[in-house]
Amino acid sequence: MAKITVSEVEHVAHLARLTFDDQEIEAFTRQLNDILEFVDKLDALDTSDVEPTTRAIELLNVFREDEVKPSLPVEEATANAPLSEKGAFVVPRII
Amino acid sequence: MNNLTDITISELRRLLDQKEVSSLEITKAYLERIEEADKRVRSYITVTKEKAIAQAQRADEAMAKGKASSLTGIPLGIKDVICTKGVNTTCGSKMLESFRPPFNAAVMEKLEAQNAVMLGKLNMDEFAMGSSTENSAFFQTRNPWDLDRIPGGSSGGSAAAVGARLCAGSLGSDTGGSIRQPASHCGVVGMKPTYGRISRFGLVAFASSLDQIGPLARSVEDCALILEVISGHDPRDSTSLPHPVPPYSKACTPGLDGFTVGIPEEYFVEGLDPEVEKAVKGAIDSMASQGAKIEKIRLPHTEYAVATYYIIATAEASSNLSRYDGVKYGFRAKEYSNLMDMYKKTRAQGFGPEVKRRIMLGTYCLSAGYYDAFYKKASQVRTLIIEDFKKAFEKCDCIAAPVAPTTAFRLGEKVDDPIQMYLSDIFTIPVNLAGIPGISVPCGFDSKGLPIGLQLMASHMQEEKLFKTAYNVEAALNLQAHWPEP
Fold it and tell me: For the segment B127-176, what is each residue's pLDDT rounded down to a tens digit?
């Protein structure tokens, strides 16, 4: 498995909406490389005929009736907001 | 009455039912002890003193009217990863430092319905990521048996508080061993039930296919009592199982005739501390002397479990933690130039290094071009691990093994080596990958006086077999009376 480069780490950081200084990027690159080398051992296993486990238990199609149920009142839903106004969350302008 | 804080939940229940003591007296005893001893153990992030007293009074009123259930009036601590309405739920992170959930977790609803008492919220590794509670953003919880050592993690506060007698029992959460490992290091009983046994509604998510809430207490029967109350189907958690909840505490009966206990050779390898091995083997001998048949079994894919876990759990975590964006709740950075900058600075400042490391690893494993090589591969190996257990349980009722390769290590000993830290979960991780139940029960001490836990595992929905086996080990070894004075 190819080692991860600093520019790949920067790309992943962007995907994860994280930001690092240069020292942190270097440390992360090293640590991630160590971990990726460690997980390389899975390659030793032949899994060509093995179904992936996609869910932990054997429940299927857990549905409920399409009924409107009560939900949180607006004041409670916005009570923890860093910034809110008139029942809405305030964020930097996008458009 | 002396030492109300030293006795078990079932003992407290007897005293309450016989009106020899009130919930208010028990609660006050714990609150006093917390004020004194928690200065050193540091297990609680938030102590809900007034609320606890009010709950104790309500419990006493309910009992006076003849309305007592098993946990009525019993004071418990709750890991800070579980949502408690109106009470800070921090997950050990700056990201949620002032977060007050507008709702109660399903398990809290069940405890409140019985008028149990909540003493407060317990310290943990940030977002349940860690094995030592060194990743808490706030402070370090210490092992009550040796304050210079870790209590284990991520439910370090939950285990330390029970061991130091700062609550009658606690709730923790277990994704890769986070209940069983700290229980082992703190000399208490801790168990993770079958995946889906307890509703995850209100459990702040780390890895959704692995997370489960579970009880910690000073006896096997106490754990069973708590499990009876908090288990059950919940329509708000689509992964919760529809099966009825049996009276788990009734499984705590003497004798193991007709039981077969499997010993996996893959768990007794180099790296396992010889004193841990000796104590675990001693416990296995005690099971044999109580009628159990001991059988060698194989779990051939054990060595791949940690690598599998660190792909699956971090991938799921990277998705679950993407909700922390500074918009609707939690921390938001003070200065930012635009929305993207707000997201990045909020998350960079709000999360600690271990959380960031796991988010980065998980994001990488799921990213375009790498999904098949990592996540899909790990999911296939997960199937092989599940099949190992299926085959093993055809030959035995329970599997016996160590919980951790060593006893509690010193603070700071493993912080600089993430892989060393991850390897301390080597024996507990397979249980989460397979979704089966597992319990840690004390089975001895090392030459430094540090506790050693025995791990028992059973097949899906076979918690009663775990409790029966653990109960018998506990009775035979009789270690219960010995508690630390931190």
Answer: 999 999 999 999 999 999 999 999 999 999 999 999 999 999 999 999 99
B337 CB neighbours in chain A (<8 A) are 92
Q: Report chain B residues whose CB lies below 8 A from the CB of A77.
A: 102, 328
Structural domains of chain B in order of their starting residue, each with its CATH number: 9-255 (3.90.1300.10)
Shortest CB distance from B379 goes to which of A4, A53, A92? A53
Interface of B with A in 72-101 (CB under 8 A): 98-100
Q: Is residue A27 part of a domain?
A: yes
For the segment B394-412, what is each residue's pLDDT rounded down to a tens digit?
A: 999 999 999 999 999 999 9
Residue A71 lies in a domain: no
Structural domains in chain A (count): 1
What ipTM score was computed for the predicted complex, to two decimals?
A: 0.94
- Euclidean distance between CA atoms B388 and B163, whole angstroms: 34
Does any domain span residue A74? no
Note the pLDDT of residue A2.
54
At B369, the pLDDT band (50, 70, 90 cuts) reads confident
Q: What is the residue whose two structure tokens read 């060393």? A: B420
CATH number where A1 lies: 1.10.20.60
Does residue B253 sit at the A interface (CB-CB below 8 Å)? Answer: no
**Average predicted confidence (pLDDT) for chain B:** 96
Q: Find, in chain B, the residue whose alpha carbon is nearest to that of A38.
A: B307
Expressed in angstroms, the distance from the first to the final Cα of chain B is 22
Residue B199 known to be catalytic: no
B331 in reach of chain A (CB within 8 A): yes
For this structure, is B28 an active site residue? no
Please tell me the distance in Å from B366's CA to the nearest CA on chain A. 10
Report the residue from A17, A31, A93 with minimal CB separation from B357. Answer: A31
Q: Residue B357 above 70 pLDDT?
A: yes
* Structure confidence by residue, pLDDT tens digits, B247-299: 999 999 999 999 999 999 999 988 899 999 999 999 999 999 999 999 999 99
Domain that holds residue A9: 1-43
- Contact between A32 and B364 using a beta-carbon 8 Å cutoff: yes
E strands, A9-89, in order: 84-85, 88-89
- A90 within a domain of the structure (yes/no): no
**Do residues A10 and A17 lie in contact, with contact meaning Cβ atoms separated by under 8 Å?**
no
How many beta-carbon contacts under 8 Å exist across A and B? 155
Tell whether the model's pLDDT for residue B208 goes beyond 50. yes
The yes-or-no verdict on residue B1 having pLDDT over 70 is no
B445 in Cβ contact with B451 (< 8 Å): yes
CA B252 to chain centre: 21
In chain B, whose CA is at the least distance from the CA of A34?
Answer: B419
Q: What strands lie across the sheet with B44-47, from one edge to the other? A: B44-47, B117-122, B75-79, B169-174, B212-217, B189-192, B438-445, B451-457, B398-402, B260-264, B293-297
Enumerate the H helices of A22-82 as residue ranges: 22-39, 74-77
B154 is catalytic: yes
Could you tell me the CA-to-CA distances from B323 to B9, B100, B212 in Å, in that order?
Answer: 38, 16, 20
Which positions in chain B touch A1 (Cβ < 8 Å)?
Answer: 373
- The catalytic position among B43, B79, B240, B468 is B79
Q: Which among B209, B307, B332 is the nearest to A38, CB-wise? A: B307
